[in-house]
Amino acid sequence: MNEILMTNIFFLITAVSSVVITIVLIILLVYLIKVIKKVNRITDAVETETVKIMNDVEEARVAVKQHIGVVRGVASAAVMKKIVEKIFSKK
Prior knowledge:
Number of helices: 2
Number of domains: 1
Mean pLDDT: 87
Order of helices and strands: HH
Structural class: mainly alpha
Helix content: over 70%
Number of strands: 0
Shape: rod-shaped
Radius of gyration: 37 Å
Distance between the termini: 119 Å
């Protein structure tokens, strides 16, 4: 009779621990799902902002290409001014 009682106690402990472990795993999975949803939202926002930044950089690149002649003219005028100042400056 003692062996049957020990077997019943073993199965009771096993059943209770299985239920507890299952509940803990369910709770962990719920938190994991919440974290994954938040990470997904964050990555979507980062992707959207990255596309906006890429568009802004492209617009800036186009603007620089359009106005590079003006910049070269101003830069060459500044260089010429310095050369003329060096030539005609009094020592």
